[in-house]
């Protein structure tokens, strides 16, 4: 009984080992070529520059100012934007950053007025 169990374990481990070696090898042997995308869409590129299977909308130059204020990840791939803040020159043109700057400046002014008022009030007392 124990001998049969040991033999079964050895056979199963050999099958599992061959599976882990052969399945990735077979996956690499047949690369997937993505099908065509509809008009206005393209296959985004992976880190190696190969097209991915999914289709993404191509960002036009008119949309790029609002959708990709920091620019594109790659000039060849017009489907992926850089993360916000990765291009400091374009960050100052971002409308959200402009609004936040106005809010911070107004709050800083109000806090300054409150501090001066508190100092004057403390001096009067």
What would you note in describing this structure?
The longest helix has 30 residues, at 95-124. The chain starts with a helix and ends with a helix. The strands form 2 sheets. Strands 1-2 form a two-stranded antiparallel ribbon. Helices cover 55% and strands 10% of the residues. The chain has helices at 2-29, 61-67, 88-91, 95-124; strands spanning 41-42, 56-57, 72-74, 77-81. The chain is mainly alpha-helical and 125 residues long. The chain folds into 3 domains: 1-30; 31-87, no CATH class; 94-125. It has 4 helices and 4 strands. The model has no long low-confidence stretch (mean pLDDT 76).
The gist of it:
Helix content is 55%, strand content 10%.
Write the layout of secondary structure elements.
Elements: H1 2-29, E1 41-42, E2 56-57, H2 61-67, E3 72-74, E4 77-81, H3 88-91, H4 95-124
Antiparallel strand pairs: 1-2, 3-4
The structural class is mainly alpha
Query: Which shape, going by the Cα principal axes?
Result: elongated
Mean pLDDT, to the nearest integer, reads: 76
N-end to C-end Cα span: 97 Å
The biggest sheet, with number of strands, parallel, antiparallel or mixed sense and barrel status, is: 2 strands, antiparallel
Helix content: 55-70%
Which band does the percent of strand residues land in?
Answer: 5-15%
Biggest sheet, spatial arrangement of strands: 1-2
**What's the β-strand tally?**
4
- H-E order: HEEHEEHH
Number of helices: 4
Low-confidence stretches: none
Radius of gyration: 30 Å
Number of domains: 3
Properties at a glance:
125 residues, 4 helices, mainly alpha, 3 domains
